[in-house]
Structures are given as C-alpha cells and as structure tokens.
Amino acid sequence: MSTQIKEWLAGATETERARAASTAGTSVAYLYQLSGGHRKASLALAYQLQVATDGALTVAGIRPDLAQLLSSPAA
Predict the structure, then answer these.
(1) Which of 5, 21, 48, 70 has its CA 20 to 30 A from that of 27?
(2) Rounded distance, CA 10 to CA 32, Å?
(3) Mean per-residue pLDDT, 8-18
(4) How far apart are CA 71 and CA 13, in angstroms?
(5) What is the Cα 71 distance to its own chain's centre?
(6) C-alpha closest to that of 28 among 57, 62, 5
(7) 21-69: per-residue pLDDT in tens?
C-alpha cells in the first residue's frame, strides 16, 4: 500500500490526477489500485509518477523497498 499515493490522490484535483496518470502512461484507476495496495508500481512507473507530479510523489514514497535497494551499495 502506498500511503503517499493515497494522500496525493485525496488532495489532487480530478484534472491533476488525470494529467499525472496520462503523463506517466497509466490511468487514474491504476493509481487507486496502487494506493490501495492491490498493485505495486514498477520502478519505471514510480519514476514516471515522480516526474509527472514534479516530485510530489517520489520513488521512495511509492516503492520504499526499491528505493532502498537502489541506495544500497553493491555487495
């Protein structure tokens, strides 16, 4: 479940939600699935959402598990 997406969706206007989803190459319905924990965003989608929302959503907030892997030094 992505609390960050859930909070962003609650505060965003319908137009903002539609624009961010379209720019990221997904749908508003899929954003709601992500926010409810029914789906997990890929790294690419998380990054696209970060760009589409000008950083209001972040890879670390959407997928903290992936962000942690990316920031860990290679073993």
Answers:
(1) 70
(2) 10
(3) 98
(4) 33
(5) 18
(6) 5
(7) 999 999 999 999 999 999 999 999 999 999 999 999 999 999 998 877 7
User: Topology of 3-71 in CATH?
Assistant: 434 Repressor (Amino-terminal Domain) (1.10.260)
SS3 call for 56 = coil
Domain ranges of the chain: 3-71
Q: Please give the structure tokens belonging to residue 61.
A: 């907030």
Q: Please report, as a single letter, which amino acid is at residue 37.
A: G
C-alpha R_g of the chain: 12
- Specify the long-range contacts of residues 14-19, CB closer than 8 Å, at least 24 apart: 19/52
